[in-house]
Amino acid sequence: MTTPIKIVAILTARSGKAEALRDLLDSMLAPSRAEPGNLRYDLWTDEAEPERFVLDELYENAEAVAAHRASSHFQTYLAAINDLAERSAFTLRPLGVA
């Protein structure tokens, strides 16, 4: 049995970078969702702070996460993200998930 992996990333745009951050995050949606092993890849924004974004990702297993991180679109994201945003990411394992 494989264990699903959830990743939640919270990204807050640096001053004047919200539009560029949104463009980068939007560019990740389709290719990430198309990856084998990807079960969910959703982008949210904070109603109170619209320059704060949340990525909600779910993968079948650790191998799918590794494949995502090795993809060209993730490498493009990785090269740009630190210039655009403060970032916190959490990799989670299920304890009580329906």
From TrEMBL:
<keyword id="KW-0503">Monooxygenase</keyword>
<dbReference type="InterPro" id="IPR011008">
    <property type="entry name" value="Dimeric_a/b-barrel"/>
</dbReference>
<protein>
    <submittedName>
        <fullName>Antibiotic biosynthesis monooxygenase</fullName>
    </submittedName>
</protein>
<dbReference type="InterPro" id="IPR007138">
    <property type="entry name" value="ABM_dom"/>
</dbReference>
<dbReference type="GO" id="GO:0004497">
    <property type="term" value="F:monooxygenase activity"/>
</dbReference>
<dbReference type="Pfam" id="PF03992">
    <property type="entry name" value="ABM"/>
</dbReference>
<keyword id="KW-0560">Oxidoreductase</keyword>
<dbReference type="InterPro" id="IPR050744">
    <property type="entry name" value="AI-2_Isomerase_LsrG"/>
</dbReference>
<feature type="domain" description="ABM">
    <location>
        <begin position="5"/>
        <end position="98"/>
    </location>
</feature>
<dbReference type="GO" id="GO:0005829">
    <property type="term" value="C:cytosol"/>
</dbReference>
